[in-house]
Description:
Strand content of chain B: 25-35%
Oligomer: heterodimer
CATH class of the largest domain in chain A: Alpha Beta
Helix content of chain B: 25-40%
Low-confidence stretches of chain A: none
Number of domains of chain A: 2
Shape of chain A: globular
Mean pLDDT of chain A: 92
Order of helices and strands of chain B: EEEEH
Bound molecules: iron/sulfur cluster
Order of helices and strands of chain A: HEHHEHHEHHEHEHEHEHHEHEHEEHHH
CATH architecture of chain B: Roll
Largest sheet of chain A: 6 strands, mixed
Radius of gyration of chain A: 21 Å
Distance between the termini of chain B: 47 Å
Largest sheet of chain B: 2 strands, antiparallel
CATH topology of the largest domain in chain A: Rossmann fold
Strand content of chain A: 15-25%
Shape of chain B: elongated
Radius of gyration of chain B: 18 Å
Strand order of the largest sheet of chain A: 4-3-5-6-11-10
Distance between the termini of chain A: 13 Å
Number of helices of chain B: 1
CATH topology of chain B: SH3 type barrels
Strand order of the largest sheet of chain B: 1-2
CATH superfamily of the largest domain in chain A: HypD, alpha/beta domain 2
Structural class of chain A: alpha/beta
CATH class of chain B: Mainly Beta
Amino acid sequence: MKHLQEYRDGDIADSIARSIHESTTRSWSIMEVCGGQTHSIMRYGIDQLIPKSIQLIHGPGCPVCVTPIETIDRAHAIAQQPKVILCTYGDMLRVPGSRGSLSGLKTQGCDVRTIYSPLQACQIARDNPNRSVVLFAIGFETTAPANAMAIKIAKTEKLKNFSVLVSHVLVPPAIEMIASDPTCRVDAFLAAGHVCAVTGYEAYHRLAETYRIPIVVTGFEPVDLLEGIRLAVLQLEKGQAFVENAYQRTVAAEGNPTAQGVLKEVFQVTDREWRGIGTILSSGYTLSEAFRDFDAEVRFPLEWKPVECTNCRAGDVLRGLLKPNQCAEFGKGCTPDSPLGAPMVSHEGACAAYYQFSQLSPKMNASR
Amino acid sequence: MGLADFGGVVAEVCLEYLPDIHVGDYAIVHVGFAISRIDEDVALRTLAHFRELEILKADVAEQIPSVDGH
Ligand code: SF4
């Protein structure tokens, strides 16, 4: 893609890193909220380019990681019902629930399908009128518009054999939960660029003001991340706290109003449980009244008691209290091939990022 | 729906959320949906701004870790 290489350019990255070194006089902790950014940071060794006094804390922005075990177990139970086809995104398949992962069900003859777009679930429903197609809809504000559109299409086309298990979460309430914690160690946030591309960043002004914390909307390429860190450090050093956009080529202040309109129509805000973290008020979506008929939780009322793996410290990792390699199971009992927790599975999980990239030194060259 | 070229791999993408997008534009695509148009002018302006940073700091001889390892 055009200009992508420039945003991975070693010389530009160098000069931004140098500028960060020159501006930094104190220790700062900066949280990147999004797991996609955690992966970029590890992959390009961004943490090794910035001053040692700046700590990057990895946030809870891994949708697969925060999907409650109850919901994974429910998806598991639904997939075992007669005539069901369960559709979900790749990472979700391998996440351990208390009865194993969804991919394990495939070997038992259950029909679990990996999709890359929710529109495929609509097509599967059209093609299989005698089967019950369930879309396991997880994700942040980036994925929500796509899932919302699939649900809207199902309603318009009266796809009676289509339903959706919704486990959508929202970023600003999670930032607020972290920022409002009296023991909070985070001095500034890098807000996830692609989430803001949908929602805009108006909602962040109140957070920056209330908690006196800089919030910088940041992209995913190494140069984007370094620029996000640079702007955050400049604010911190000057004692400022406001919302800044370091990802202007993609994010407009108002976001994507068309997508927001559909989100408002299909979903309504609800309290959500975040795996390993607990319930966060008004931090997720459920189906709005007009779309309740498509709720898989109502169609498949199933009961059980979930059991978490006691050795997995995903909750501490997701809250930024523990680095993945400080977990006793990291790389020993827990690897991407046999994960104990979701953060070791997902391409947005911090444990997987550390496992994949921690042996590497800065490697921007390789991509040039 | 439209066709998007992901660095060589062409796939169908839903364009419903970007009513103003044109052939040849760049976009952020997430789970098969284009959610944001990339503004090329802004992308270039930001890069120019970084280059200024580079020129300004070029003569500051400070030892810091380098991306290139030099
Ligand atoms: S390394 Fe594995 S066991 Fe430890 S917190 Fe991460 S996912 Fe859980």
